[in-house]
Write a structure and sequence with these properties.
The protein is elongated. By secondary structure, it is an all-alpha fold. The chain has a domain of 69 residues. It has four helices and no strands.
Length: 110
């Protein structure tokens, strides 16, 4: 029977700790932790690339709007543009990944 992960464990870690194992104990192996770290690092790289492209797109949109004397309709109605929301969402994803990396490795690695 698998042990429950700590209540404060991030969901990805909790799923990894509950993954079936050939080991007789419930602690994840170094290989499993290494694989998880590699996956997290890859997801972080992808998220950073998305963030960079969103920041470039925001500048391009602003330039285009200035050139044609247009306003961002979504920003006028809601106060925040859809691309700004996407940027903030992506930043939160990166922060969540960083938090998981710190949980697995300690503050020096993330």
């Amino acid at each position: 029977m698998l042990e429950a992960p700590p209540l404060n464990a991030p969901p990805l870690i909790a799923r990894t700790l509950n993954a079936p194992s050939r080991e007789t104990h419930s602690m994840p192996t170094n290989t499993a932790i290494t694989e998880l770290l590699e996956k997290l690092a890859e997801q972080r790289r992808k998220a950073v690339a998305v963030l960079e492209s969103l920041l470039c797109a925001r500048e391009e949109c602003a330039s285009h709007n200035d050139q044609y004397h247009r306003e961002d309709a979504v920003r006028e109605i809601t106060g925040v543009s859809s691309i700004d929301r996407a940027i903030e969402s992506t930043r939160r994803i990166i922060e969540a990944i960083d938090h998981q990396l710190v949980q697995l490795t300690g503050p020096a690695t993330a």
